[in-house]
Amino acid sequence: PPTPIIKRGRPSLESKLNENN
């Protein structure tokens, strides 16, 4: 489960990927 997505630096892009997953 990708929880620490905002930790990468791109919360926008990561959020989109997370939603797709």
UniProtKB/TrEMBL annotation:
This is Uncharacterized protein. Residues 1-21 are annotated as: Disordered. Residues 11-21 have a biased composition (Basic and acidic residues). The lineage of its organism: Eukaryota, Metazoa, Spiralia, Gnathifera, Rotifera.
